[in-house]
Design goal:
This protein is an alpha+beta fold and 54 residues long. It has one helix and two strands; from the N terminus they run ββα. The chain has a two-stranded antiparallel ribbon with strand order 1-2. InterPro entries: Peptidase_aspartic_dom_sf (IPR021109).
Length: 54
């Protein structure tokens, strides 16, 4: 699968705006995007591991 990248800005209610170069690839059917460690590090959300929510 060829790799493509794009600079995207992510706006999620309750979190600061996040802009980053991201790889464009297929995602699971029930997901719109997958955000990783760089996003977690920048926005530092409160994570409820038991309910799997941010």
């Amino acid at each position: 699968m060829p790799c493509k990248a794009a600079v995207l800005t992510v706006n999620i209610e309750g979190f600061s705006e996040y802009t980053s170069s991201m790889y464009v690839m297929p995602t699971p059917e029930d997901k719109n995007a997958l955000l990783g460690w760089p996003w977690l590090k920048q926005v530092n959300p409160v994570i409820d591991w038991a309910s799997r929510t941010i």
